[in-house]
Amino acid sequence: MSSEIRNLEPKQLWNKFADLNAVPRPSKKEERVIAFMKDFGKKLGFETIEDEVGNVIIKKPATAGMEKRTTIVMQSHLDMVHQKNNDTEFDFDTQGIEMYVDGDWVRAKGTTLGADNGLGVATIMAILESTDIAHPAIEALFTIDEETGMTGAMGLKGGLLTGGILLNLDTEEDDEIGVGCAGGIDVTATRTYEEEETPEFKIGYKITVKGLQGGHSGMQIHEGLGNANKIMNRVLFDGFENFGLRISEIDGGSLRNAIPRESNAIVAIDAIHEEAFLLETKEQEAMLKAELKTMEPNLEIVVSKVETPEKIMDLGVQEGLTRAIYAAWNGVYRMSADIPELVETSNNIARVIVKDGAVKIGCLTRSSVESSKWDLANTLRSTFELTGCEVTCTGDYPGWSPNMDSAILKVMTKLYEKLNNEKPHVAACHAGLECGILGTNYPDMDMISFGPTIKGAHSPDERAQISSAQKYWDFVIEILKEIPEKA
């Protein structure tokens, strides 16, 4: 790990982040980071617990003079989103993240950085290890699998924690204090189809949509970023309408909480239309680039000749599929009527796979209003069922309703103004935080979310602001001093 990262200020924070980023920690494969965290707690001599689903809890007593303060839960998730650029050779299962400094930012070399939520984890580790930071009794809660199901938060049982205040360190703007978030549900459409022999007069092409920014499907869904699955579908739809294009395979997107950056399709077209198809696709690329030039200046649609595929989709299924993806809602569905500029409900068409007689389309639907979440989920369900798909709705998790009378909110608002000579932005967000889920078993816990500035989360453009990390660290230290006494 580069020494330039470890020499950044505050060193306590960046050193722990460097230690953490040396440990592979993909969602649902957290065995190594769980062992790493348990070993960390035990070496410090603190009570360290792994619960039945893999969450790790480390308990540190209050420092001298802070024993009467309310016990706090400091919480972050251990897993990270794994995304890399197409031309980056990297094995997330075995390699640590390779970081470097770029001006006021820390980045990774062609991959996600893991600042979401690694900087939160590193903060808690630094506090646990410290000997000169005043704080009340701490229950450090490190949850698993936040990014692909929140199963850690869902599996945390009541009674394991005694804290009265929870500090969630998973917000990505340093001037924001989070008081609420969206819930979510996975909507998955599947079906099988009969494959047909590819006619002799057809030739094979590979179509690639690439160069998109990608990003967080909650925090960035309103930004107008391109969705590779929707763009690919436009190309396929047009190719079928004009040149009899037939689909053999599609592989688009990756994780449900990441806006798709790339999509690949293997298709067959009539040889007689080859020249016209190539010209039309080039014109369509120019049109889409003009349409998305502000947000997606690096969009590319690459068409390359390949061996003619042996099998293609049943024609009727292909027509239904392309029409369903065209009709399926993607992006902002409804803005909040109560909180200015807050996205209430959205959907991300995250994954499209067509291969070997099977179709799978994965979506993540989010909303801060439960009824609106189900309204959009049922809209998607109806769209895909009309084409013969079986649709399942799984992984349902609740949102977190704002409590504007929160005692810790009042403490933190005053502290932020004192430290920064400006008011913080107190807001709910459209991302899925674990607070709502944790609140189901700990309904009386006073919860708040904050963190340093992180841009481009869930994409290889993820970066953490160095100056913001110092500002955030100073804020954390002051918050710990001002935790109110037990009621």
TrEMBL record:
The keyword Hydrolase applies. The keyword Transport does not apply. Residues 208-293 form the Peptidase M20 dimerisation domain. One of its GO terms (cellular component) is cytosol. Coiled coil: none annotated. Its cofactor is Co(2+); Zn(2+). It catalyses: Hydrolysis of dipeptides, preferentially hydrophobic dipeptides including prolyl amino acids. Its EC number is 3.4.13.18. GO terms for molecular function: metal ion binding; metallodipeptidase activity. It comes from the Bacteria. GO terms for biological process: proteolysis. Pfam families: M20_dimer (PF07687), Peptidase_M20 (PF01546). Keywords: Cobalt, Hydrolase, Metal-binding, Metalloprotease, Protease, Zinc. InterPro entries: Peptidase_M20, Peptidase_M20_dimer, Peptidase_M20C. Belongs to the peptidase M20C family. This is Cytosol non-specific dipeptidase. It comes from Algibacter lectus.
